[in-house]
Amino acid sequence: MKILHITYVALFVAIMGALGVVPPINLSFTPVPITLQTLGVLLAGGVLGARLGAWSMSVFLLVVAAGLPLLSGGRGGFSVFVGPSAGYLLAYPLTAFAVGYLISRYHTLKLHNILLVNLTVGIFLIYLIGVPVQAFMMHIPVLKAAKLSLIYIPGDVIKATIASILVFRLKKSPAIQRQLTKAS
Fold first, then answer.
1. Is pTM, for the whole model, over 0.90?
2. Which of 171, 154, 179 is nearest to 46 (CA)?
3. pLDDT band at 47 (very low <50, low <70, confident <90, very high)
4. Which residues pair with 30 in a beta bridge?
């Protein structure tokens, strides 16, 4: 990895940590809180691309596993990977990779294309892995966990929209494009 790549990965680990400072919204009927960190996952994939986006999320999870309280609500340590939100966390690198890969496949970058990827693949992958793990950890049927997770969809749509706008603007910026081209 080049120094520039390492810097970008570290920057997005820091962004995820900063998003974790925002207090979570805890719901009474589910132990999985509403956080802003999904926004960081979509940004990492969209801005850094598949490989570096996945690396940044992997490094973030390793830092969390090492005990740094970077998850929303000041959570950290290995115990978060054996709780109800473990699947959502483990989906971060895969989601960043998929979002970055699919956005890179578009020859002409358009906001609606980025939004489509973030809403369909980005959010879908997080739920695809998160919901079954949540069901397993809570000892409930997958369908019940899926119903519990419906409450997150409006917020995730808003986060995907914000991420799409930011990715579009950053990718259209000539200065940012030069830096990202250097990193490739």
1. yes
2. 171
3. very high
4. 27
